[in-house]
Amino acid sequence: MAELKPFKGFRPPVDTVKEVASRPYDVLNSAEARFDVEGNPHSFLHVVKPEVDLDTDVDLHSMEVYDKAKENLNTLIRDGFFVQDERDILYVYAQTMFGKTQYGIVGCASVEDYLSEVIKKHELTRPDKEEDRMNHIRHTNFNAEPVFFAYPDHKGVDEIVAKIILSKAEYDFVSEDGVGHHFWLIDQEEDIANIVKYFREDIPYTYVADGHHRTAAAALVGKERKQNNPEHTGAEEYNYFLAVHFPESQLSIIDYNRVVTDLSDLSSKQFLGKLDKAFDITELGPEIFKPDELHTFSMYMEGIWFSLKAKPSTYNDDDPIGCLDVTILSEQVLGPVLDITDLRKSQRIDFVGGIRGLEELRKLVDGGEMQVAFALYPVSMKQLMDIADNGMIMPPKTTWFEPKLRSGLVIHSLD
Fold first, then answer.
1. Residue of 402, 352, 379, 405 whose CA lies nearest to 98
2. Digitized pLDDT (tens) for each residue of the chain, 415 residues in all
3. What is the CA radius of gyration of the chain?
4. Phi then psi for 366, rounded to 5 degrees?
5. What is the pTM of this model?
6. Do the Cβ atoms of 170 and 74 come closer than 8 Å?
7. DSSP structural state of residue 5
8. Cis peptide, bond prior to residue 127, ω within 30 of zero
9. Pick from 2, 56, 250, 359: most CB atoms within 10 A?
10. Three-state DSSP class for 18?
11. Does 384 map to a domain?
C-alpha cells in the first residue's frame, strides 16, 4: 500500500507567493527563463534554472550551476521568502484551467515505495537527466519541485478535501498563463491521520503522471544517503520526496502530436497510396480537423487536412500498448512508410503538445519547417494506469498533462 507522509514545508509568505512561484524547470529553456526573471530577483526560477544568474555560455550541468542553485535558495530562505511550517502537515493544491479545477494532496511519497514499485511508472528515464536532477537535490538539499502523481479515487480522501476547501485558501492567485492556483493547509491532526491511513490501507499503488526524472532522481538520492549513513533508521527526511497526489478521475491527458520534416522521398500521392493500406482516408479541406475518437487521426499536408481512420487489422484493443494510437502511427506510418524507427533519436520528427493547438501544426507545415503533421486522440488515464499496472512502458512522447504544477509554493528539506 502507498505511503503518504506529512512534512514541515518551506513556503513563501502570502504577500510574496505570486512573486516567488514560477513555471517548472522543464517547460522553458534558459533564454525564456532569463526573460521571465527580469525585474524579479525572488522568482523561484533562480533556484530551478540558476543559469539565469550566470554567463549565457555556462555548461548547464556544471557544478557552478548547481552551486548557484544552492546559493540562491539559501538567500531566499535567509531573506524570509521561504519560511518553514512549525510541524508536519499536509496541503491541498488545486489548479483551475478552462473552468475545470483539480484538487491534489501535497505530501511526501516514499523512496522505498518507488524502489519496490508501489509507485508505478509508464515512461523510461534517461541517466543523464536523472543525474542532472540528482545533482540539483544533492547541492540544494531540497526537493525543490514536486512530482505529479495520480491515485485511484477514494471517497474518504475526497470528503476531507471537500471540507478543507470550504475555508479560505492560504494562497489564491492566477498566474500569467491564466491558470488559477489555490492552496490550503491540512493542519488538523485527525484529518492528517485519516488521509495517511486511507493511503496506507486502501490505496495499493500510486502512479507517476508527470515528472519521471524528478521521481527517479529523488528516490536515487534517498537510496544513496541511506547507503552512506551507518546510523540510518528509515525515519530520515531523505527517505521521502515531494509529490502532489491527484485522484485519477480529475485528471485529463491532452494530445501529444507529431510533425515530420519530409516524406522520405515519396510524393504526396505515393505517400497517401501507402497510407491507404492501413487507414480509411477522407480529404477534408483547409479547415482544421481535430480527432474526436480513438483510432482516428488528423493529418495535415500541403494545405489540406485529412481524416485517417485506422482499419481494425492495425491494432489490438486487448493489448495495453497495441491499442495506443501512438503505437498505430509508429507501426503503420512512421516506421514502414517514413523510415522513422527511433522516436528518441531521429532528427526528422518533432513533438508538439496539444496545449499549443492544431494551429501550431499548420504553422509548422505551412512555414516549410515540416512537411506533414499528425494529430492524435489523447490517451486516457485508464490506458495509462493499465500500462503501468502491467509493468509496461509507453512509447516516447505519449502523454501531456496540463496544467503544470507551479514551482515554489512549498518545498521539502532532506534534513
1. 402
2. 999 999 999 999 999 999 999 999 999 999 999 999 999 999 999 999 999 999 999 999 999 999 999 999 999 999 999 999 999 999 999 999 999 999 999 999 999 999 999 999 999 998 999 999 999 999 999 999 999 999 999 999 999 999 999 999 999 999 999 999 999 999 999 999 999 999 999 999 999 999 999 999 999 999 999 999 999 999 999 999 999 999 999 998 999 999 999 999 999 999 999 999 999 999 999 999 999 999 999 999 999 999 999 999 999 999 999 999 999 999 999 999 999 999 988 999 999 999 999 999 999 999 999 999 999 999 999 999 999 999 999 988 899 999 999 999 999 999 9
3. 23
4. -65, -30
5. 0.92
6. no
7. B
8. no
9. 2
10. helix
11. no
338, 365: one domain? yes
| CATH code assigned at 332 | 3.30.1760
Quick one: cell of 394? 509507453
What separation, in Å, do the N-terminal and C-terminal C-alpha atoms of the chain show? 25
Return the closest-CA partner of residue 377 out of 356, 399, 396, 392: 399
Strands 279-285 and 90-97: what pairing? Answer: unpaired
| Residue 373: count of CB within 10 angstroms of its CB | 24
| Residue type (1 letter), 201 | E
Residue type (1 letter), 318: D
- 17 and 116 both lie in a single domain: yes
Task: Specify whether the CB–CB gap between 69 and 136 falls below 8 A.
Answer: yes
- If one counts every other C-beta atom within 10 angstroms of the C-beta of residue 176, the result is 8
| Buried b or exposed e, range 189-221, using 16+ CB within 10 angstroms | eebbebbbebbeeebebbbbbbbbbbbbbbbbb
Let me know whether 142 and 34 are in one domain.
Answer: yes
Does residue 95 sit in the same domain as residue 180? yes
Q: Quickly tell me which residue has 536523472 as its cell.
A: 130
- The CA-based angle 174-177-180, given to 5 degrees, is 30
Which range marks the domain in which residue 140 is found? 10-252+402-413
CA distance 130 to 239: 17
What's the structural domain count of the chain?
2
Distance CA 62, CA 79 (A): 26
**Is 303 inside a domain boundary?**
yes
Which residue shows C-alpha cell 546510523? 231
Q: How many helices (H) and strands (E) does the chain have?
A: 13, 20
φ, ψ at 52 (rounded to 5°): -60, -20
Place of cell 521568502: 81
Give yes or no: residues 217 and 129 share one domain: yes
Contacts of residue 342, defined as CB under 8 A and 6 or more positions apart, other chains included, come to none
